[in-house]
Specification:
Elements: E1 3-6, E2 9-13, H1 32-35, E3 39-40, E4 48-49, E5 55-56, E6 62-67, E7 74-81, E8 99-100, E9 103-104, E10 111-118, E11 125-133, E12 143-147, E13 150-152, E14 157-163, E15 173-182, E16 186-193, E17 202-205, E18 207-211
Antiparallel strand pairs: 1-18, 2-14, 2-17, 3-7, 4-6, 5-6, 6-16, 7-15, 8-9, 10-14, 10-16, 11-12, 11-13, 11-15, 12-18
């Protein structure tokens, strides 16, 4: 039986205001060179990563192009999970985090934020942040936490923040990823782990927790 718990997440519209340092955001431990090795999670979404991507963007971030499997709305999840059976993922060793039981230890962090920039001047898409926690090999429950799907306007950018307060087994993070959703032939986006900008304009969304194995 899966149980759901709705908490609070904040989505901040990317502005020109300078970023402020929020204490202990996990984005500080994810360099672009590490995100460059993230892969499509075959278990969630039929979209595919376009040939030649991802690439490092300038001045920062990683640029992804994801292609539609056909007509209609589609999704793709991209990230790093301990059990993703693809070379280049599986809890990479290039993060700036301690590890525990072969997983990432985020117990010192209070949030996880990423900035998404849409390079398409005509079409928008939606995006959400996702993490899993729990070392199932030692009897812990597999917990999934995510923000709601957040729109990114054509040519626009948003910074999404997933609060980690109340997250169970934060010392055993087994998946770090983002999901893209749209109805266009291609989603062209730069993903950049980043501290949220000054919150002069914001929208409140739900942080959704799914708990498996109960």
């Amino acid at each position: 039986m899966k149980t759901l718990l709705i908490l609070t997440a904040v989505v901040l519209i990317a502005l020109e205001a300078p970023a402020v340092a929020l204490a202990a955001d996990a984005s500080s431990g994810i360099p672009d060179a590490c995100q460059l090795n993230w892969v499509r999670d075959h278990r969630d979404g039929p979209g595919t990563v376009a040939s030649g991507y991802p690439v490092l963007d300038s001045p920062a971030g990683v640029r992804w192009a994801a292609d539609s499997p056909g007509p209609g709305t589609w999704e793709i999840q991209i990230g790093d999970a301990y059990d993703t059976p693809t070379t280049g993922a599986g809890m990479l060793g290039c993060y700036g985090f301690p590890t525990s039981a072969g997983l990432l230890n985020w117990s010192a962090y209070s949030s996880f934020s990423m900035k998404f920039t849409n390079h398409d001047p005509v079409n928008g898409f939606s995006v959400q942040l996702i993490i899993n926690t729990g070392a199932t090999g030692i009897g812990e429950t597999d917990n999934l936490y995510s923000t709601a799907l957040t729109p990114v306007a054509p040519g626009g950018a948003v910074t999404i923040s997933l609060p980690l307060s109340g997250v169970e087994n934060l010392d055993h993070v087994s998946n770090v990823s983002f999901k893209l959703a749209g109805d266009t032939d291609r989603i062209d986006v730069t993903a950049e782990p980043e501290l949220p900008p000054v919150p002069t304009e914001s929208t409140t969304w739900g942080l959704i927790k799914s708990r498996y194995g109960e």
